[in-house]
């Protein structure tokens, strides 16, 4: 039988994928590494089918290895006898605890069949939540900014683990970035905040990310002219459309996404 690693998405139960929901409904037992993922999972499965795992709050690597070995020893027999799931917020393969479980199973229980069901990651959900577009042709880097760190370099970055927004902000602005913060995006637990003001989110909350762009990072996009030709956006009149069409010497029309 199978152990499914299921990505639950950013937190709203409706953002669990159709496949993820179907598997959650079918498996015998569902394990969750934390309170938030458990809250999302229990929107789709009864509490009685949630399995018990104990994870210590520690950075001590020896204690963590022991905890993962114990977790794998609990999960492996259930995934041999029947179907089981391990859920994580976002996607199981993006900055996720699922990686620890997979490595531990590979090492100590290699006979367990694993299947991963992708989830909507904060890495992509942020764009809709913040109302920004990552245009085709642009580069985008993922970095961590815990403990007030301000990683710099790429023109566009998503920063995870923004736990001290004012300190991170200072470094980013000094390096020439515009920054927008998102806290608890598409989450039902806690307040969702989208802001450019780090003072609004100066209390530590692990579920905070930032999108940082260099002020001069801009791609030449054919349709950008619709927004700027006569200085305003809105419905395109025939005259505006003509102006736009004249300005566009080599429109490239593609549909590849
Ligand atoms: C360990 S990573 C987990 C990423 C997750 N596996 C994913 O694919 O979205 C945790 C970091 O992701 C970001 N994050 C995850 N979910 C978020 C949400 N709903 N709103 C804002 N940030 C979120 C935060 O920066 C948090 O510190």
From TrEMBL:
GO terms for molecular function: cobalt-factor II C20-methyltransferase activity; precorrin-2 C20-methyltransferase activity. Its EC number is 2.1.1.151. The keyword Transferase applies. GO terms for biological process: cobalamin biosynthetic process; methylation. Pfam families: TP_methylase. Pathway: Cofactor biosynthesis; adenosylcobalamin biosynthesis. It is an enzyme of class 2 (transferase). Transmembrane segments: none annotated. It comes from the Archaea. Keywords: Cobalamin biosynthesis, Methyltransferase, Transferase. This is Cobalt-factor II C(20)-methyltransferase. It comes from Halorientalis pallida.
